[in-house]
Design brief:
With 337 residues, the chain is α/β, with parallel strands linked by helices. It is built from ten helices and 14 strands. A ten-stranded mixed beta sheet has the order 1-8-2-3-7-4-6-5-9-10, with helices on both faces. Strands 11-14-12-13 form a four-stranded parallel beta sheet, with helices on one face. Helix 1 crosses helix 5 and helix 9 packs parallel to helix 10. The radius of gyration is 19 Å and the shape is globular. The structure holds threonylcarbamoyladenylate (TXA) and magnesium ion. Magnesium ion (MG) binds next to loops.
């Protein structure tokens, strides 16, 4: 909860000129506004205002050692905050606006506050392509720091209702842009070192990035402990945690389990969520977080013992889906939730 503010009324704003105007005014006044992007809903605050940014960490219960992505309206606004490189310019031209986040050296004359970057000398920047998010960023006229709009360690929200389920009463408003088109978070590529490094698979596939810039170091860096995570921010093994345990690559399922189905569902589950009957990875990505929520909630209500996820191929968007499922299935010491 923002320090000293107690429980507050969360306004639900409609996507349209007056909702966007209201959301931009709130952001410029240092308030917290969740907004829909093509990936997931972000919990936005004025990235230039350390007090506003501090209230993001408080509302989410997120450690302030974990840096935030600065969202901007266009490439020029991004390269006003970070040092452009040749590769960054090529990637920006190819994939922005869109679900790609680039980590680059912060510029000395940038406007994003140090707290948003958790004190690092790099900054993650992204230009979202959802029309509502772009209109909001243009109207705000400042970089907007936004993590996913969920309590820390929980499943990311892909609808305004998901945001309210986790943060109602803790944030000032939600701009309802409908369900997110991609449904899982942006791909994060670190361009601040000698070779481009994939920090998080996401809405832009590794294959698509490699087709444009060639080799990328994509070795997974999953830190098992909170202290390791400090040197690789956001790479905690456990994340997206449902309350029910999750079992991966299931070839069969029991009546006491909920099934996350990809392709035709296995027989015999106590509850089923169909990611994509025709085995389409894009459709599956867009239905993943809703499915985890429904199976977790309804599964607990029905007294089921866990969730079984059918195998998902590792190529294309499947890499990001498998990454999120692996994190949801990882053991979770309370200290890193
Ligand atoms: O699709 C998305 O990326 C969504 C929407 C709202 O834009 N945002 C999102 O933010 O997923 P968040 O905070 O949930 O995840 C951002 C990840 C975190 O794991 C964080 O540690 C990492 O990006 N990150 C941010 N800045 C970084 C930096 N300078 N260096 C390395 N990792 C960074
Ligand atoms: Mg997140």
């Amino acid at each position: 909860m923002p320090p000293g503010r107690g429980r507050i009324m969360t306004e639900l704003l409609e996507d349209g000129p007056s909702g966007i105007d209201r959301a931009a005014r709130l952001l410029r006044a240092g308030r917290l506004v969740a907004f829909g992007t093509e990936t997931v809903y972000g919990l936005g605050a004025d990235a230039t205002d350390p007090r506003a940014v501090a209230s993001i960490f408080a509302a989410k219960g997120r450690p302030s050692s974990n840096p935030l992505i600065a969202h901007v309206a266009d490439e020029a606004a991004a390269f006003a905050e970070v040092e452009a490189t040749g590769l960054a310019e090529i990637l920006a031209a190819a994939f922005w606006p869109g679900p790609l986040t680039l980590v680059l050296k912060r510029r000395a004359d940038g406007t994003v506050c140090a707290l948003a970057a958790a004190g690092l000398d790099t900054l993650a920047v992204r230009v979202p392509d959802a029309p509502s998010a772009r209109a909001l960023l243009r109207a705000t006229g400042r970089p907007v720091a936004a993590p996913s709009a969920n309590p820390s360690g929980r499943v990311s929200p892909s609808t305004a209702a998901h945001v309210l389920a986790g943060l109602d009463g803790r944030i000032d408003a939600v701009l309802d842009a409908g369900p997110c088109r991609v449904g899982l978070e942006s791909t994060i590529l670190d361009l601040s070192g000698p070779v481009p490094r994939l920090l998080r698979p996401g809405g832009i596939t590794l294959e698509a990035l490699q087709a444009v810039i060639g080799p990328i170091d994509a070795a997974p860096i999953v830190a098992a402990t909170a202290s390791q995570a400090l040197s690789a921010p956001g790479q905690l093994a456990s994340h997206y945690a449902p309350a029910l345990s999750l079992r991966l690559d299931a070839g069969r399922v029991s009546a006491t389990e909920a099934l996350l189905a990809f392709g035709p569902p296995l027989d015999g589950a106590g509850l089923v969520w169909r990611l994509s009957d025709r085995g389409d990875l894009g459709e599956a990505a867009s239905r993943l977080f809703s499915g985890l929520r429904v199976l977790d909630q309804d599964g607990q209500r029905l007294g089921l013992s866990g969730i079984a996820a059918m195998p998902i191929p590792g190529e294309g968007l499947g890499a990001a889906i498998r990454d999120r499922l692996a994190r949801a299935a990882a053991p979770r010491p309370d200290s890193v939730r």
